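User: quick one, fold this
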Amino acid sequence: MSERTTPNDLDRHGTRRTRLRERHPAALASLLDERTDLRGVHALADHFDDAIRWSA
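Assistant:
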């Protein structure tokens, strides 16, 4: 931890990272639902979309 970084900063960044991590899969699934033409464009996105669908 540097002199400029406080525990509050770390908590704030950790909370932000958690919110983004929770929001990203839902956004990806929503995007691929709306834009079926994007399926098959990026293999990793397809993989995560399939994983999200199978876990629901």
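User: anything notable?
Assistant: The two ends are 39 Å apart (CA to CA).
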